[in-house]
Amino acid sequence: MRTVYCDESGFTGNRLMDEDQPIFAFAGVCMAPDRAEAYERELAEKHKLKATEFKGGSLCKRQRGQAVVRQVIEELADHAQVAFANKKYALCCKMFEYLIEPAVSPVNSLLYNIKFHKFVANVLYAFMIAEKASAESVFGRFEDALRGRTDRQLIAIPGASAVTAIDLNDFVDNIITFLVCNRKKIAEEVILDEPQRAGGWMLELSTTSLRSILVAFGADMEPMEVYCDESKPIADQTLIFDVMVGRTDVRKVPFAGRMHQVTFNLDRKIEMVDSRAYPGVQLADIFASATTFALNNPGHELSNVWFEHSEKFVHVDSVVPQLEFADLTRPDVAVSAMVFHELLNRSILGQPYLADMREIIGIAQAGVAAEPERFPGSPADEDDFRYFYEDDDEEEEEEVG
After folding, report:
1. Beta-bridge partners for 226
2. Is the pLDDT of residue 189 over 80?
3. Which range has the top average pLDDT, 43-47, 62-66, 71-75?
4. Can you list the domains of the chain with their CATH numbers?
5. pTM (2 decimals)?
6. 218: burial class by Cβ within 10 Å (0-12, 13-18, 19+)?
7. Which InterPro entries match (predicted)?
8. CA of residue 268 relative to chain centroid, distance
9. Among residues 73, 142, 254, 283, which is most buried (max CB within 10 A)?
10. Residues near 157 by beta carbon (within 8 Å), at least 6 away in sequence
11. 147 near 199, Cβ under 8 Å?
């Protein structure tokens, strides 16, 4: 039976606009309990550390601690999994999930297959980093609306009371217009269903990250015992994981053109523990802390070690901006833009669009294909994994792979 230890770094709950902690990371380490205990003891002896608990965040800040982190990454990279998120971009994804998808949920698979969700999220993120002052207000209200979970807060956005008063040339205003026109569908999912969401953790990232980590470790359905450092959102939503106790059936679902496994096998319920008594959880904390440190300090020597080995443990479900999905010279992105404007126009006019979704997409694709000179770019590749940094001094070098 496998033993998996988990911990996180950069947790701010539902507050995804936190400027001081822009990256969230959730890490898992698969290691036998006796080996984890022995390994921690060996680390302490080698590096002459007297601490009774390894704290990844503290280790990353000190030279002696960085040597510990480097050794852990180099030696345990093959035994770890890390899912991380750019939290501001994750908020843009949440905007699509809660404020766009409810209006198209009966046909959402068609839109996911053309990467419509990536188009919306990345254009919103591009707006956020280009128009920081106004973005803080728009996205802050979005966070407040979801945390408040009332119809008044959800719809009370300046200018949203009258569609005719909104400048439709601005993408964010277009999103707001779409919300106003589809407010009933959105309110039913976001507000009426909310009392059944445990603890109101609509924007937190821990639960989905843990699920990704456990699928990665347990894809072969071997039983796992799992220990997580104490986490309020995970503790509030344990029912999501309890259904995996004793599961042996491999289930996969299609999503955005790929098959995703959704089952794994837990030997028993996930245990929430105090990391001081579990060396394996402390090792997971080192991986999580090293991830947030590296992504916040990409030029640091320790970060170079992380990048060198990251391909072994970074999970494909990590949430990072892919601004190629906001490039309208790309034919597939242009298709998404045309589809969005058709949905917006029909919403304003009160016309149905769900039954015609295949036709709408087909017309957009045919239109783009008929004018290749207008859309010379290559289709965006959703599997082209990129790390994104905001750097005022290096404007031409925004993406680092």
Report:
1. 4
2. no
3. 71-75
4. 2-87+202-313 (3.30.420)
5. 0.85
6. buried
7. DUF3800
8. 27
9. 283
10. 138, 141, 176, 179
11. no
